[in-house]
Specification:
This protein is 34% helix and 23% strand. By secondary structure, the protein is an alpha+beta fold. The protein has one domain: Gcn5-related N-acetyltransferase (GNAT) (Aminopeptidase). The two termini are 28 Å apart. The relative contact order is 0.15.
Length: 213
């Protein structure tokens, strides 16, 4: 394996949102570029990235190299607490800020599943395995820094930090078609938890115990 590429890892701020959303979009098609799939290129980031910067119990870190932003790492110690906050505070803010632009049935060029998610009034999905794997982690890295050993290093740093905060386990949610990501996490000790058929999407969940034996 090649040596990890030179990079920096720093906390994200709201001034980084545009670049963060761009990374999200460019890795959203089962790990590939999804720019061609969405008319509104910010809605995906609003739903899957922005909340981690706003939530008091969330963390968002930026991966940068000589060319600029190359990825991000998102975490929350308590996924259930994040989901409650997301439903009660973040989603209503998005609905208000976008207003009539996203009135269901009137929007153009937007992915239907994202609209359904935006206007979804269902309770958060909190399966029993969250008792064992309460923390949540997302790692997205652009192709130029993939397959260099960087991802595993950044992931292991995140696990060490979660372990220092007494988390007993962490989970990740993947697109079931992202086979490369699944192999990556499984090679680092993540195990199958569930293939969940949620109202707006299907998610493959993997988890890893952080309890030291």
């Amino acid at each position: 394996m090649k040596k990890p590429a030179p990079h920096t890892l720093r906390p994200a701020c709201f001034q980084d949102l545009e670049a963060l959303y761009d990374v999200c979009l460019r890795t959203a098609d089962a790990g590939g570029d999804a720019s061609h799939l969405f008319g509104d290129v910010t809605l995906l980031g609003d739903l899957y990235v922005g909340g981690y910067l706003a939530f008091s119990g969330g963390w968002a870190d930026i991966i940068e190299d000589a060319q600029g932003m190359a990825g991000y790492r998102l975490m929350t110690l308590d996924a259930r607490a994040y989901q409650v906050w997301f439903r009660k505070q973040w989603l209503p803010q998005l609905r208000t800020s976008r207003g009539a632009q996203l009135d269901k049935g009137q929007a153009k060029h937007l992915d239907e599943s994202l609209l359904d998610f935006l206007w979804d009034e269902e309770e958060s999905y909190q399966p029993p395995w969250m008792d064992t794997y309460p923390s949540e982690l997302h790692l997205s890295i652009l192709p130029r820094l993939q397959r260099l050993g960087l991802g595993s290093k950044i992931l292991q740093q995140a696990e060490a930090w979660l372990r220092s905060k007494a988390s007993q386990g962490v989970h990740v949610g993947l697109n079931p078609d992202n086979h490369r990501a699944r192999l990556f996490f499984e090679a680092l000790g993540y195990e199958f938890l569930e293939l969940a058929d949620l109202p707006t999407e299907q998610i493959l969940y993997l988890g890893k115990s952080l309890i030291e034996s």
